[in-house]
Amino acid sequence: MLENEIIELNKGRSAVYCSQAAQDERARYVANHPTNILVFKCMDGRINLPFITGVPIGVFRPFRHVGGKFTLLGDPYLNHLVREENEEAMRQGRPTLSLCTYHFSKGDKHRGCAGHKYDTASARSGAIALKKEFDVVFGTHNIEMGAILLGIETDEDSIVFTNEAGETFSIAENTEVADATAIRVKLSRIYPDISEQMLNDLLPLAYGDRAHVRTLKLAGARPHSELVHGEDIICVGRGFDWLHLPNRALIIGPYKYYDHTWKDAIAIAGNIVRGNFESNPNLKKGGALLIISAPYRNLEEKGIAMTQSDSYSKVAQDALGENIKNLNMKILVGVTDMTTMKFHQLKI
Length: 348
What we know:
Structural class: alpha/beta
Largest sheet: 6 strands, mixed
Number of domains: 2
Helix content: 40-55%
Shape: globular
Radius of gyration: 19 Å
CATH topology of the largest domain: Beta-carbonic Anhydrase, Chain A
């Protein structure tokens, strides 16, 4: 059963995350690349930045919503979370860089972002709007808090470093550029406002994605199933860093946007999974899974997380409506200990 598979997956991922080797790897990575990286991205299951860059799980701070649509100025909760991240990083002597992402397919626009009705220009404009909000809230040339625009091309899992003026550096189009200095010069031209430290800490993303894209190209044409939506899991809430299964889960944070509440986003996710089942009968056989999570870092926060998770569950089930029955959907409700990545299931 799908829910048992996910529980076992979490146990294994948590054990690996807590292992001494993984702790050492994260500590070494952060020591060498101290920038605290926040990633604002679509709920799309094909968007999996740790997977395509090889950056250790737990380094990025992910924020997910339909179409990668966020507003710092119109969402007090998100604003609070971002400021909290920035303040904690500053206490550690680390800068923070926010990646305002959008995604697209170079092969077929209908494999692009459903949240923007497959309109890449709209998706890009949304990411630019978020980046401009960061500039308003934190200022430009801020060595402690920066924000950049980043594209993700899903056919080749390629990062596209870009800016509002349209300058780009696509990893898929530059897999043979091996010189670190040359890459850094290109990034410095695209992102002239961010600090030297932030620029240095973007390089591992470029190197890791380059290796990933090279591997994909050597393997030949990707199966069609990897290029289109194939999710059978809907995740609602926060604390899903451990759930990195390419193209398996739509992840929706409790954020709002001018034209989409998170309840709207959950309903859209239900329709996407229903469409996946209609186009793939084999996927339908296992049914769907709804996972609800709220994160906590200490016992004092656990009670609040449990209350949040219960509230998220009610909202999600209301938003999905008949799709819960139509998709033969099982439900896991729990809280995630962010110090161990362990998901603790709650009785509902």
